[in-house]
Amino acid sequence: MSIGIIGSGNIGAAFARALARASIPATIANSRGPESLQALTDELAPFITAGTREEAASADIVLVAVNWSKLPQALAGLPAWNGRIVIDANNPIEAPLFKPADLNGRLSSEVVADLVPGARVVKAFNHLQPHLVSGDPRAEGGRRVLFFSGDDAAAKGEVARLIDRLGFFGIDLGPLSVGGRLVQFPGGPLPALNLVNFG
Predict the structure, then answer these.
(1) What number is the average pLDDT over the span 120-141?
(2) What average pLDDT does range 164-183 have in this prediction?
(3) What CATH number has the domain bearing residue 152?
């Protein structure tokens, strides 16, 4: 399964570092172009390469982590998703004010799903602080917990396998209507909880 990353901020870069640590290749893209990612790709070579938005979006699994207000622009005009997997790692809030976005009562994952028609959306990698995503998932003799949720069982299975390959302990929170609400930041009870599984 090829992997793409759209967004090179804290979460996108942390996910790239986690992949590189596990020797998993991926293509990362941002709005400023591949040249702006030189320092990150030098750090994470040979596993992480920079590409265009279109190149990153053509992967089998595409993690999206972009400033909330820039999401529509970041996802506009991309090739048809055709059932490929989009990992929604976005939070409907952004610096510097950290004021929650007005979602008109909808879940942020529902908004994201509308921006990637035809994709199978899995919510994951948004609830842990970036340094915990990029750091060693083994902690206190156990494995750090990563929550995920989605409406497509096969897509969730692929993301669960990726989470396991990265060394984390994945916990399925069910459909987006349930899990998306639990991990949404702000508002949900699970963001920023650093949990470890000792099973």
Answers:
(1) 95
(2) 97
(3) 3.40.50.720
The tokens describing 192, both together, are: 């920023």
Q: How far apart are CA 146 and CA 185, in angstroms?
A: 15
Q: What are 20-72's pLDDT values in tens digits?
A: 999 999 999 999 999 999 999 999 999 999 999 999 999 999 999 999 999 99
* Strand spans (E) along the chain: 3-6, 26-29, 48-50, 61-64, 85-88, 120-124, 138-139, 142-150, 169-172, 196-197
The tally of domains found in the chain comes to 1
Of 84, 136, 95, the residue nearest 9 (C-alpha): 95
> Nearest 5 degrees, angle CA 40-CA 72-CA 179?
85
Residues 6+ apart with CB under 8 A from 45: none
Residue 40's H or E segment, with its range, is helix 38-44
Q: Pull the structure tokens for residue 54.
A: 């279109």
Give the residue from 186, 119, 100, 107 showing the smallest Cα distance to 159: 119
Q: Are 151 and 173 in contact (CB under 8 A)?
A: no
Position 17: which residue type?
A: R
Q: What is the pTM of this model?
A: 0.97
Domain range for 69 is: 3-197
